[in-house]
């Protein structure tokens, strides 16, 4: 899903309270980051397949770089650097990740981390972050949950599927594209499962219900039209701008959510929705009665405790954002209803299957499919649960952690929500054609949350 104007790269920021020397950082990354073997490898692909290979002549200094800001630089200058790096392609021919060390930032230092999305999703990268900490128990747990090098060569899903490469690819070497072989293997797996369910009808009834649910979700996705035209739906330049707001106290968000009969996510998404409406209206869009959509990643990993591995294991849901509703409580309850409906649906699993199929197709087919899929939303919004306690890295407390979610296709705006050490941090990244000054939007999110707090204090907990 990479595009020249829209690379699929996760950007993170770690702010430390004291300086961290370059040599110490090299040692830290060598011992605690490169223990994940995937980061020594790089993806290679052609029109029909993709795989991982060992990087020839791996050199850590190609990935760990120093950069300076002007003396006395603050958040605005660091935001500018984040946007500049987010707009700069990762170097080809080597593993697709970098650490940039800003050695003098607000009496401490900062690390800007870029990792291509093919290495890991947000949930997995939280485990990588934990592995950087000095807490040995946290590092051990994070590495256990991140799996082993076996993740690079997962076995076929079934015994029948294992026969496909030898039985078909072996007879017709080079004549059948890899994406067709993958489809055949998956089809063989389905066949074997079909035999199993024929012998276990009590299980097949549940599977049939699930299948109907998935089919219904795919039909609903197909019927969902393109999002209405706003400043968020314009051609992309590939030049990014990034910003973040002052964090919200998580306990305060929880209290507001409890008093209003909602979840923390409901309150955060409703605050974002109100901010988007006010921002777009202030820039000339007529938003009255308008609803736009955000694609929201949903974790589809196994329960906590099982090895989870790196890579990507998430689906997407299309969350309706009623930006045209002005009253904060009416808007909150509309968001709550939409979120509740999605919780009871199979949309995340359906989109995972759809994207898996699309990702195995040649680029000539994949590109228009991605364009159609992403036309149905105006932004990506991601909410991650970070470490509940402050991290310490190489003996230095971490004061702030942020990330910016990548977008795909024609979507050029991403909003990230990350909880860390009892606070919730919003970050916005956007193509400069869509949102030239994302600080305006991200500050409005806090304003909208304070409006909900004010209504709670007034006792207006219901409409």
Structure commentary:
By secondary structure, the chain is of the alpha+beta class. The protein folds into 3 domains: 141 residues, Chloramphenicol Acetyltransferase; 44 residues; 186 residues, Chloramphenicol Acetyltransferase, CATH 3.30.559. Helices cover 41% and strands 21% of the residues. The protein is built from 13 helices and 15 strands. The strands form 3 sheets. Strands 7, 8, 9, 10, 11, 14 and 15 form a 7-stranded mixed beta sheet that branches. The radius of gyration is 23 Å and the shape is globular. About 12% of the residues have low confidence.
Indicate the topology:
Blueprint: E1 9-16, H1 22-33, E2 41-45, E3 50-54, E4 64-67, H2 75-86, E5 97-105, E6 108-116, H3 122-131, H4 136-145, H5 159-169, H6 178-199, H7 201-223, E7 240-244, E8 248-249, H8 250-259, H9 264-282, E9 292-299, E10 314-321, H10 328-343, H11 347-359, H12 363-374, E11 379-385, E12 392-393, E13 396-404, E14 413-420, E15 423-431, H13 438-457
Parallel strand pairs: 4-5, 9-11, 11-14
Antiparallel strand pairs: 1-6, 1-13, 2-3, 5-6, 7-15, 8-15, 9-10, 12-13, 14-15
Q: Whole-number radius of gyration?
A: 23 Å
Which CATH class of the largest domain applies here? Alpha Beta
Give the count of helical stretches. 13
CATH topology of the largest domain: Chloramphenicol Acetyltransferase
Largest sheet: 7 strands, mixed
Head-to-tail CA distance between termini: 43 Å
Q: Roughly what percent helix?
A: 40-55%
Total DSSP E strands: 15
Please identify, by name, the CATH architecture of the largest domain: 2-Layer Sandwich
The unreliable regions are 148-176, 183-209
How much is the average pLDDT?
82
Strand content: 15-25%
- By secondary-structure content and strand pairing, the structural class works out as alpha+beta
Number of domains: 3
Query: What order do the helices and strands follow?
Result: EHEEEHEEHHHHHEEHHEEHHHEEEEEH
Shape estimate: globular
């Amino acid at each position: 899903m990479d595009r020249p104007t829209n690379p699929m790269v996760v950007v993170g920021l770690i702010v430390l309270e004291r300086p961290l020397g370059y040599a110490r950082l090299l040692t830290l990354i060598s011992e605690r980051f490169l223990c994940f073997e995937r980061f020594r490898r790089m993806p290679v692909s052609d029109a029909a397949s993709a795989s991982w290979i060992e990087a020839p002549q791996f050199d850590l200094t190609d990935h760990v770089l120093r950069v300076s800001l002007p003396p006395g630089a603050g958040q605005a200058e660091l935001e500018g650097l984040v946007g500049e790096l987010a707009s700069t392609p990762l170097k080809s021919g080597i593993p697709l990740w970098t650490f940039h060390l800003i050695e003098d930032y607000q009496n401490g230092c900062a690390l800007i981390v870029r990792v291509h999305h093919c290495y890991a999703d947000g949930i997995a990268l939280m485990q990588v972050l934990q592995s950087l900490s000095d807490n040995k128990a946290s590092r051990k747990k994070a590495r256990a949950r991140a799996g082993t090098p076996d993740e690079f060569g997962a076995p076929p899903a079934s015994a029948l599927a294992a026969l496909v490469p030898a039985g078909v690819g072996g007879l017709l070497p080079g004549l059948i594209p890899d994406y067709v072989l993958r489809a055949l293997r998956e089809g063989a797996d389905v066949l074997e499962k079909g035999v199993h369910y024929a012998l276990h009808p009590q299980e097949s009834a549940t599977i049939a219900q699930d299948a109907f649910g998935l089919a219904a979700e795919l039909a609903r996705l197909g019927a969902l039209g393109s999002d209405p035209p706003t400043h968020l739906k314009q051609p992309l330049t590939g030049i990014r701008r990034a910003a973040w707001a002052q964090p919200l106290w998580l306990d305060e968000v929880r209290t507001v959510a409890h008093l209003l009969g909602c979840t923390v996510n409901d309150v955060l998404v409703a605050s974002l929705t109100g901010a988007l409406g006010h921002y777009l209206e202030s820039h000339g869009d007529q938003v009255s009665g308008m609803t736009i959509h955000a694609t929201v990643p949903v974790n589809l990993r196994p329960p906590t405790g099982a090895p989870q591995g790196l890579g990507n294991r998430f689906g997407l849901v299309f969350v309706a954002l009623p930006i045209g509703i002005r009253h904060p409580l009416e808007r909150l309850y509309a968001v709550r209803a939409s979120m509740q409906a999605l919780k009871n649906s199979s949309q995340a699993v359906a989109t995972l299957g759809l994207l898996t199929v699309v990702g195995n197709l040649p680029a000539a087919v994949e590109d228009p499919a991605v364009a159609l899929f992403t036309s149905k939303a105006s932004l990506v919004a991601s909410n991650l649960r970070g470490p509940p306690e402050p991290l310490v890295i190489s003996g230095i407390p971490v004061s702030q952690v942020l990330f910016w979610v990548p977008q795909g296709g024609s979507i050029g705006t991403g909003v990230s929500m990350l909880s860390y050490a009892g606070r919730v941090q919003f970050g916005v990244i956007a193509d400069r054609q869509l949102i030239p000054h994302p600080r305006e939007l991200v500050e409005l999110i806090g304003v909208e949350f304070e409006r909900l707090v004010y209504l709670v204090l007034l006792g207006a907990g219901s409409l």
